[in-house]
Amino acid sequence: MSEIGLFDAMYSARSLRRLKPDPVPDEILTKILDAAIRAPSAGNAQHWAFIVVRDAEQRRKLGAIYRKASDIASAIYRARGRPAHMSEEQYRRFLASGAYLWEHMGEAPVLLVPCLRDRVPPPREALPAAVAARWEDELAYVDRTRGASIYPAVQNIILACRALGLGTVITTNHIRCEDEVKALLSLPDDVSTYALMPIGYPQGKFGPLARKPPSEVAYADRWGAAWPR
Ligand SMILES: Cc1cc2nc3c(=O)[nH]c(=O)nc-3n(C[C@H](O)[C@H](O)[C@H](O)COP(=O)(O)O)c2cc1C
Description:
It contains nine helices and five strands, in the order H-H-E-H-H-E-H-H-H-E-H-E-E-H. Strands 1, 2, 3, 4 and 5 form a five-stranded antiparallel beta sheet that branches. Helix 2 crosses helix 7, helix 3 packs antiparallel against helix 4 and helix 3 packs antiparallel against helix 8. Bound molecules: flavin mononucleotide. The site of flavin mononucleotide (FMN) has 12 residues, from helix 4.
């Protein structure tokens, strides 16, 4: 298979939730994982783990947890309503695609679960007084930046899947029922899940991705100043 260019991959790696049941070979999955682990992590800690779920019963159970969690998500979406940048038709398709996955998550041939182990800060006593004095702020910083050590790997997975002709989507609904997921996957207490990614050969087509343009979301030097000038 000829390699797709990086920008073509970024512009066409849309969420693909309708997947064929055909198995994905081990070497392809290893290639995806090898792309995932090229991502940055705080302090290069690489405190991640990736659970590759292919066992049919494990997938069925994960799918059932996702289904349950999605009831909460759907109530939230109903209360929030359509974002201004989406047309009625775009929003209808978005909701229909999301709802499809509620019922079919467990049928994807692979469910990939990117995880992170908690990264404990050094003991307070080991810190200089000025840094120890802002201990609570440091804990808040760790909390705020935690996901930044796994979501770059998730994006690498999305792009690697695109390059290899596989469909996927980042989902997080299951975190609403995280205890059940952790028990099912036998995760240690200090390991948490950050995404649940169905992976398989897509029924639909890739891209293109519709987004608000940079002129609406980027600023020059300070908030509110038009980009490009
Ligand atoms: C943090 C995050 C959480 C998401 N959670 C879910 C989810 O639980 N279920 C789902 O179907 N899609 C989920 N998505 C996918 C988004 O719906 C999708 O990225 C967005 O609609 C854009 O889709 P597109 O790339 O196909 O245009 C999530 C995306 C992000 C970034």
